Amino acid sequence: MRNLCSRQRPLPAGEYRGTPSHMRTPLASVATILSWLVMTPCLSAAPVHLVDERPVNIVQTESGVYLVDFGRVAFGNVRLHPPPGVRGEVVVHFGEAFAEGRIDRNPPGTVRYLKTSVTVVGGAPVIAAPKPDGRNTQQKRGAILTPAEWGVVAPFRWLEIEGWDGELRPEHVTRRAAYAATWDDDAAAFESSDEMLNQIWELCRYSIKATTFAGVYVDGDRERIPYEADAYLNQLSHYYCDHDVQMARDTFDHLMKHGTWPTEWAPHMVFMLHADWMRTGDTEWLAERYQSVKSKLLLDRRGPDGLIHSNAQQIKRTDIVDWPAGERDRYEFKEINTVVNAFHLRATALMIQMARGLGLDHDVEEFTALGKRSYAEFQRQLFDAESGLYRDGVGTEHQSVHANLFPLAFGLAPESSREKIAQWLGSRGMRCSVYAAQYLMEAMFKNGADDFAVAMMTAPNRRSWRNMVRAGTTITWEAWDQNYKPNQDWNHAWGAAPANLLPRYILGAEALTPGWEIARIRPCIGGLKYAKGKVPTPRGPVKIDWTLEGELLELSVALPPGMTAQIELPASEVARVVESQGQVMNATRVGDRFILDETVQGDVTFTVRYRPKRREQIVVAGPPAELIGHWKLDGDADDAVGSRDGLVGGIVHFVPGKVGRAATFQAEGGFISTSENPFPQTDFSIAAWVRLKSQSSDKSYIAGTQKSNLAGAFIRIEPDRSVSATVLPGGGVIAEVASIPGTITLGDWTHVAMTVSEADGLKLYVDGVLVGEDVSATSQASIKNFTIGRRPDRALSVSDGGDWLGEIDDVAVWDGVLTSSQLKNTIDKGAAHFDEGVSDD
């Protein structure tokens, strides 16, 4: 079955002979660039179909409701097969999220929970489909529609079925899941010595399969709209997981008619066209679209200096750098934007390659001249030779990860600075979205930092693919975590970059010439002991298997007929020669690689002595801290940075404090409480100034959340006047650290802080000094009762509540872990100024 959503007709094959006159269109003639879109109809969408899937598990709850698990999320609906004797109304709940043993009926963001009811009559199959979504099932809003005869499809893994009369068996319920009709589950394979990396690969591979449901690449279930950047990342991964090229082509044609708004998304169309050519070698398809794609080079914004300039509206809205906006590493937007210009330069370089492939000498000369001028100014105005890094733009000295990862990934950075930039990026961690991580990982793998790249992919924090695996999702997310995009959906293919990164760089297989006539095999070790797999190409699968035992690296490659390969093996100080079956091969050392002088074909095996780089330790930085709750207590209990204003209970006054004014709790029963918990599940910080004036025999709570010993995180003073920090991850588990007795002196101001992260566990600080830690305490179970000055689960109780008697000031909560410099700023300047002029440490 073909997707009928776009009502499109096949595009005439067309012909390409030599250099047609229409290929000579001057670059400035934008009116003719889009002519093919008017003159030729669009392609129909790639074939998709419904696949019957049986449940992997069915259980009946105590209430009689059947809980059905299909093992993984897929887009689809359900066919019920009631046996004879089963009849009546059945209520079907569809769920993408699970909580406390049941479908989560109030999931976050645009994670799906849907409900429908059907009447069943024994022996007659019936389709149970969710109700249409007002946003993603309307073509007038740009959504790609699935065939009407399918009924509504939605992403779900679990069902709850109410009203089923009798036993529900696997043969009674079938998920009709939508996938590309051409998908081959055996087309690709990947395995390595790192089991987490293997799980990441399978998560991402399946994500690409599951998101083919619409016949073109869409951005996820929330909108079901193609976007250029999403589509390019999806295209790359699709090529490394399956044989099909039609879906990428149809998406390209759709986007040429229905372009979207972000500045940098337009050059991605050049990337897509070039990727198709490299994959297929099809110059006819390339020639038909080459002229039109010139409109995506941003040439209308080119200034006299050869750089792309942005006006006020473009700076404010369309120059995107990264998405969502909180993922930009504090990027400073300027008229001349480094990221925007990096995309322009990369697209220009690809246009030169395509023009050369089509024999368009005039365009080659013109684009080469334009590129040289732009690149010279790009280096002169945006590269800081002293630091060896790029600035965000002209007029700022700020150097974000984005201003450096894109030039490095695109090969724009000076060769002498590339390794340094890669190391700097590695030290900064994943300070970008899942989208920009595609390019960050490319930059690392290409420039000798493959060990950093693997460590960042598998890092034990929320900004890694390990976090998605740990969370149990079966399709990659739109963002690293719900905290970074509260309205995210859980079915976004642009989050599946490892589906192409691992075979491209760990196995090392890429097309060196169009159509994979010549492949490049350049494996990156990445701290692994072995890796093997299969990469689909139009000439047949490429099979790669390498092992590192001690200092001996062995690489075996099996190439399909009609393909040769350039072999590039890792080189180190212990390597002298490359051998194959006992014979020394002629190879040239170029940087950190041995490149064989001649290409190879068929089945070949090589050995080389290799010693990986010895780094003292690869430390992957966690999420950068972001202030998400701040109660200054300067006369009220309002949250200065968010919407979690406090409710004052009991007797609380405001008096001169440590940072401005402070809240004073003069009698038992006084507290400040909010109805919403600001803590993320993990990777967070809390800090406050406190002055304890008197103490009962009970514990004195400063701030936090708590539900008995079941959930929460809080900081308090013990009866012996030690400071303690507690994390309650659930299941009755308690993680607690404390300072020495007598740490708190009655009547003196003391600064207290705690941090929690998956990487480093729980840490407690008093006046900026680490006084306790527990590396096993990595998360807390959320409960919505953040309270200042009283035991949180007794804030509204008349029972003894661990009351604070004295002052509390400048209470703050961060998403992410404070660095030592940020903690020092918080103490010296106040929480509002935690990030002023700090270095990353």
List its salient traits.
eight-stranded antiparallel beta sheet; 17 helices; 841 residues; alpha+beta
Describe this structure in words.
- By secondary structure, this protein is of the alpha+beta class.
- Helices cover 23% and strands 27% of the residues.
- It contains 17 helices and 40 strands.
- Strands 1, 2, 3, 4, 7, 8, 9 and 10 form an 8-stranded antiparallel sheet that branches. Strands 26, 28, 29, 31, 36, 37, 38 and 40 form an 8-stranded antiparallel sheet that branches.
- Helix 4 (228-241) runs parallel beside helix 6 (267-280), helix 6 (267-280) packs antiparallel against helix 7 and helix 11 (402-409) crosses helix 13 (434-446).
- The model is unreliable at 1-44 (pLDDT under 50).
Backbone shape: globular
* Sheet with the most strands, sense and barrel status: 8 strands, antiparallel
Q: What structural class do the secondary elements suggest? A: alpha+beta
Please report the number of helical segments. 17
Average pLDDT score: 90
Amino-to-carboxy terminus distance: 56 Å
The number of distinct β-strands equals 40
Proportion of strand residues: 25-35%
Poorly predicted regions are 1-44
Helical content, roughly?
A: 10-25%
Indicate the multimeric state.
single chain
What does the radius of gyration come to? 29 Å
